[in-house]
Amino acid sequence: MRWFRKGRQPDVWEVADDQPLGDIGAAHKIRDICASAGAIAEKMAAAGGRDAEKKQVADAQRCEAAIKRALEVAMQISDDSMRDVSVSQIIKLCVQVDHLKTARVLLRAIQSEKTRAELVADHPKLIDQDAAN
């Protein structure tokens, strides 16, 4: 029955922006992307049942697309402090989906020492093991 089978709504990061975003608009967009992808990551962690592995692969691809789009939007932010906060949200998403290599690279892009220290305190996985030795 086609009546009840609805197509999937496009994700926040899949919607094309017609007009350029300012710094505040870009920060809001990144926050929305990270919140939406974070919900997907939580569902991935609790997934089970039939077709769980196939669904996890699809959800992992969606999270990767979200991270990529959030990084594209973050590059448009000119204010350093807003960019640091936005990148820290992307780093938290990367840690949540276990993309630690990407998170460590992005951690180096944060200019504020305070923001960087807070992230490392919240997520000890971010400490690079090779650099610590």
Annotate the secondary structure layout:
Elements: H1 23-45, H2 52-74, H3 80-96, H4 100-109, H5 113-122, H6 129-132
Structural class per helix/strand content? Answer: mainly alpha
Order of helices and strands: HHHHHH
- Describe the biggest sheet? none
Mean pLDDT: 84
Helical fraction equals 55-70%
Please indicate the percent range of residues in DSSP E strands (runs of 2 or more). Answer: under 5%
Shape: flat
**Helical segment count:** 6
Report the uncertain regions: none
Number of strands: 0
Q: C-alpha Rg, in Å?
A: 17 Å
For the termini, the CA-CA separation is 60 Å
In short:
By secondary structure, this protein is mainly alpha-helical.
Your description of this structure?
The chain is mainly α. The chain has helices at residues 23-45, 52-74, 80-96, 100-109, 113-122, 129-132. The termini are far apart.
List keywords for this structure.
133 residues; mainly alpha; 6 helices; 65% helix; flat
